[in-house]
Amino acid sequence: MHFVTIEGVPYTWLNQLQKIHALVFDDANLPLEKLESKDGLICIFAIENEEVLGFKIGYTHPDGVFYSWLGGVHEKKRGQGIASQLMKQQHEHIQALGFNKVRTYGRNERKAMLMTNIKHGFDIVSTFVDDKGRHKIIFEKTLV
């Protein structure tokens, strides 16, 4: 397995990204326009045999903090540390770009991701209810 980091929209990997996104997020669509609208988009893929096993996507939030937006691992490859490796790759890359803080949101229904965030040094800084009525937890980590 190796990692591919793309700054900007990952046009070459777009079809595979959309397929794995749908698998991870209950058939949810990830439109190209949504990716193209994000300033400072960074996509990291875990690749094996030219197939995307997992992904981590984030972008520069208007307040200057890097927002780790979406991520997931194919269900057949979970439990192998791929999400942790993707997170590590993301944090190293954005730190090299000059970011000193990363933020992400989590939901109680996705306990594995909540635990991964805590394991990797994120702090819970707040909660809110989004416009769809879902309770979300805000995590932040200072990069050292």
UniProtKB/TrEMBL annotation:
Q: Where is the signal peptide?
A: none
Q: Which InterPro entries match?
A: Acyl_CoA_acyltransferase, GNAT_dom
A Pfam family annotated for this chain is Acetyltransf_1
Q: Domain named N-acetyltransferase: which ranges?
A: 4-144
Q: What is this protein called?
A: GNAT superfamily acetyltransferase
* Species in which this protein is naturally found: Lysinibacillus parviboronicapiens
